[in-house]
């Protein structure tokens, strides 16, 4: 009698996972939009739609940017946050509160503050690439090292300024450091969708080149890929996606690494047309499902980003100890 062995998870086709995760994500979105739906529907439904839209956008931006960034750096542990994006966001908020005061920052026009944050973060990454990236693998490693150093410097400057401000101002500042989907402005969400859609077009057109680049720099060059131009384009796309996501809701440092690592564990082959959708769907499930549990079970007793970072840290350590991340 022949005993059939259970198929390993990674032997399941990517199409199966995309369909299954899409069903789960759609179900969670439907539950989030309709659970305990009462009162003025003309007010409640648009608010929930904005919240869900912001979570989907963040899941998409972080998932896509992390997978693409790991491809060009040939490292499954690095994420765009290693370039100092989150630290720069914290520094921007700290400088604003230190200079103008918490009350004025909170009363500042949302589009103005959003545009300023996006411009500063994208401008920072553009200058970093222009200065460091010369086309060789060595310069890419130098860029990553400088990103770590700059991130440490930004955190140090933020810590110094935070010690100099008033305690009441520091309380206001702390609220800006954690990702929040509860007070997203609908207009800002629209601007973010436009920016993400614009950079998604070249990202989609590069999917075949990205598959070749995942084989390594020398191999991709031998196969006809313009490595310097492709890597520069990917880094600019990643900078826009991360900047828009961070400026919209705040930093989610560990989230991209979590969804990208799980996507690689589920996917039987590493084609970007399979890995990227799986990472995005996992992100949607994590954010919408997490927010649903947080609101209905824990009654907003903690921030969703804290829970995600905690769970992501545990999952990352498990994968690392098992040797799954190379």
Oligomer: single chain
The biggest beta sheet, please?
none
Arithmetic mean pLDDT:
80
How many strand elements?
Answer: 0
- Termini separation comes to 39 Å
Which overall shape is indicated by the principal axes computed on the Cα atoms?
A: globular
Series of secondary-structure elements, N-terminal to C-terminal:
HHHHHHHHHHHHHH
Percent strand: under 5%
| SS-based class | mainly alpha
Return residue spans where pLDDT drops below 50 for at least 5 consecutive residues: 1-7
Number of helices: 14
Describe this structure in words.
The chain is mainly alpha-helical and 326 residues long. It has 14 helices and no strands. The protein has helices at residues 14-34, 41-73, 85-100, 102-107, 110-132, 137-164, 167-175, 186-205, 207-213, 217-222, 227-249, 255-266, 272-296, 304-321. The protein is globular. The two termini are 39 Å apart. The model is unreliable at 1-7 (pLDDT under 50).
Briefly characterize the structure.
With 326 residues, the protein is mainly α.
């Amino acid at each position: 009698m022949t005993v059939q062995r259970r198929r390993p998870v990674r032997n399941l086709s990517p199409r199966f996972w995309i369909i299954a995760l899409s069903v789960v994500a759609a179900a969670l979105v439907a539950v989030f939009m309709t659970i305990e739906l009462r009162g003025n529907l003309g007010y409640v439904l648009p608010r929930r739609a904005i919240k869900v839209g912001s979570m989907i956008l963040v899941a998409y931006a972080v998932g896509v940017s992390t997978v693409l960034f790991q491809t060009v750096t040939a490292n499954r542990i690095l994420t765009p946050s290693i370039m100092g994006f989150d630290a720069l966001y914290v520094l921007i908020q700290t400088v604003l509160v230190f200079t103008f005061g918490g009350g004025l920052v909170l009363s500042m026009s949302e589009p103005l503050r959003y545009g300023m944050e996006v411009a500063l973060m994208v401008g920072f990454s553009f200058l970093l690439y222009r200065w460091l990236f010369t086309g060789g693998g060595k310069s890419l490693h130098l860029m990553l090292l400088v990103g770590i150093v700059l991130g440490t410097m930004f955190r140090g400057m933020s810590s110094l300024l935070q010690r100099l401000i008033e305690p009441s101002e520091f309380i206001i500042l702390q609220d800006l450091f954690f990702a929040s989907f509860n007070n997203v402005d609908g207009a800002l969400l629209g601007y973010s969708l436009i920016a993400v859609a614009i950079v998604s077009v070249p990202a989609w057109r590069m999917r075949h080149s990205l598959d070749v680049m995942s084989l390594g720099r020398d191999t991709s060059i031998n196969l006809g890929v313009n490595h310097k131009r492709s890597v520069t384009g990917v880094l600019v796309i990643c900078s826009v996606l991360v900047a828009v996501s961070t400026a919209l809701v705040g930093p989610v440092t560990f989230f991209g690494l979590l969804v990208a690592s799980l996507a690689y564990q589920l996917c039987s082959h590493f084609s970007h047309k399979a890995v990227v959708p799986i990472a995005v769907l996992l992100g949607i499930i994590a954010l919408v499902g997490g927010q649903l549990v947080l609101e209905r079970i824990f009654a907003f007793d903690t921030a969703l980003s804290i829970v995600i970072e905690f769970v992501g840290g545990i999952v990352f350590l498990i994968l690392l100890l098992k040797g799954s991340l190379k």
